[in-house]
């Protein structure tokens, strides 16, 4: 039986690895990152970056469970691929101690017995002197298995292991698929391939492929990269990843100094609150080619400076990405028919737990059921 995994991003690459290492015949279909994004006519992905926060703590039990399962496999993926993508710098999640967000976070911590430090007041200030927190803040500092991952390198690692285990890697763009009497005909920009089963893990581009669209909402997102000189990066060497809850319910995030492919060191800030919906594949292409929202980048940079008084920034620029949401706020992990399954919708949380989401998608492609926890919707925000 040939299983086609459509989408060579974070979830699809993980699914291909799990299937190939399980001894199954796998085709992973998806183009690599384009070199010239502004002129690229095809599809894109949001893992074209060097930093994503990882942590087990999450106020929504589904995401905590999926993250714990993925984090537990990080070191083995690194060992099997020879690629390092995980940086255990720790993660801080902070907000008003009496807020529902923080209360739910503490409930998940207690339920799953997740080790973390509870920091308040002068102790919090002393631990992280480069951050400024409001009075009444409670910070949960997770050190074990938390910090940040390199999503580009994680995808490379998954694909390398899948190929070593016998997976066929096709750098094609899938245009659609049709059922045949014996399987599926998958139409790509390079021709047609046949498979017995298909798992679609194409993120915001999934509805371009599926015969019947899923109820996905794709948002345009902007992040800002703040360049640091070597001295400033050294001053912040002990900085963890940070997520904080604003009084208005927004939860911006900040990553510690990371070296990017251009050789420069950046702090990355996200938390775009401008909800621009991308309604079709052409909208998504145009957004990636356009390079992001400069006004949102300025807003995010101002938030960083307010959180980190005295921060010295050399230059800054913005980057575009997208987030794909489902109505349930958990991924669409479903069998759509006897030969077709989907694993899409990271809901802004999928990078850190992509390996487990890929594993669950692989289970579906094999005709197996999912555990109860993976079918329970997250709590409303």
Distance between the termini: 41 Å
Question: Overall pLDDT, averaged?
Answer: 95
CATH class of the largest domain: Alpha Beta
CATH fold topology of the largest domain: D-Amino Acid Oxidase, Chain A, domain 2
Helix content: 25-40%
Strand content: 25-35%
- Poorly predicted tracts of residues: none
CATH architecture of the largest domain: 2-Layer Sandwich
Q: What structural class results from the helix and strand content?
A: alpha+beta
Name given to the CATH homologous superfamily of the largest domain: D-Amino Acid Oxidase, subunit A, domain 2
What is the count of structural domains?
2
In words, what does this structure look like?
Residues 3-364 form the FAD dependent oxidoreductase domain. It holds the Pfam family DAO. Its cofactor is FAD. Keywords: FAD, Flavoprotein, Oxidoreductase. The protein has 381 residues and is an alpha+beta fold. The chain has helices spanning 10-21, 61-71, 74-81, 100-112, 121-127, 151-164, 230-235, 281-290, 294-307, 354-365, and strands at residues 2-6, 25-29, 52-54, 86-87, 91-96, 117-120, 137-142, 147-149, 168-170, 174-179, 184-188, 191-195, 197-200, 217-228, 241-244, 253-259, 265-270, 276-278, 316-325, 332-335, 340-344. The protein has 2 domains: 2-49 and 151-215 and 327-375, 3-Layer(bba) Sandwich (FAD/NAD(P)-binding domain), CATH 3.50.50.60; 63-150 and 217-325, D-Amino Acid Oxidase, Chain A, domain 2 (2-Layer Sandwich). It is 28% helix and 28% strand. Strands 5, 6, 7, 14, 15, 16, 17, 18 and 19 form a 9-stranded mixed sheet that branches. Strands 9-2-1-13-21-20 form a 6-stranded mixed sheet, with helices on one face. Strands 3-8-4 form a 3-stranded antiparallel sheet. A hairpin with an 8-residue loop joins β15 (241-244) and β16. α3 (74-81) packs across α6 (151-164).
């Amino acid at each position: 039986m040939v299983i086609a995994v459509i989408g060579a991003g974070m979830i699809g690459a993980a699914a291909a690895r799990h299937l190939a290492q399980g001894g199954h015949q796998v085709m992973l279909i998806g183009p690599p990152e384009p070199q010239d994004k502004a002129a690229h006519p095809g599809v894109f992905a949001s893992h074209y970056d060097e930093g994503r926060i990882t942590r087990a703590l999450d106020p929504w039990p589904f995401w905590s469970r999926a993250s714990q399962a993925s984090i537990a496999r990080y070191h083995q993926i690194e060992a099997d691929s020879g690629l390092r993508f995980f940086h255990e710098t720790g993660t801080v999640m902070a907000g008003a101690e009496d807020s529902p967000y923080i209360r739910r976070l503490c409930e998940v911590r207690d339920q799953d017995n997740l080790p973390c430090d509870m920091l308040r007041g002068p102790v919090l200030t002393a631990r992280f002197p480069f951050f400024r927190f409001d009075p009444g803040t409670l910070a949960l500092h997770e050190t074990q298995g938390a910090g940040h991952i390199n999503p580009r390198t994680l995808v490379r690692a998954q694909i390398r292991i899948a190929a070593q285990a016998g997976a066929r890697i096709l750098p094609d763009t899938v245009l659609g698929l049709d059922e045949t009497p014996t399987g599926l005909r998958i139409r790509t920009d390079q021709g047609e391939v046949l498979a017995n089963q298909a798992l679609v893990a194409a993120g915001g581009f999934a509805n371009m492929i599926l015969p019947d669209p899923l109820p996905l909402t794709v948002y345009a997102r902007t992040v800002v990269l703040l360049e640091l000189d070597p001295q400033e990066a050294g001053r912040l060497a002990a900085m963890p990843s940070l997520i904080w809850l604003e009084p208005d319910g927004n939860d911006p995030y900040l990553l510690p100094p990371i070296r990017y492919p251009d050789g420069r060191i950046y702090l990355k800030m996200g938390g775009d609150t401008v909800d621009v919906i991308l309604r079709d594949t052409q909208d998504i292409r145009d957004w990636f080619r356009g390079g992001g929202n400069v006004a949102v980048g300025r807003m995010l940079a101002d938030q960083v400076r307010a959180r980190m008084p005295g921060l010295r920034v050399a230059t800054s620029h913005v980057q575009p990405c997208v987030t794909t949401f489902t109505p349930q706020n958990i991924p669409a992990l479903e069998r759509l028919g006897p030969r077709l399954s989907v694993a899409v919708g990271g809901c802004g949380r999928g990078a850190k737990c992509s390996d487990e989401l890929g594993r669950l998608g692989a289970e579906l492609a094999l005709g197996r059921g999912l555990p109860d926890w993976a079918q329970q919707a997250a709590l409303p925000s």
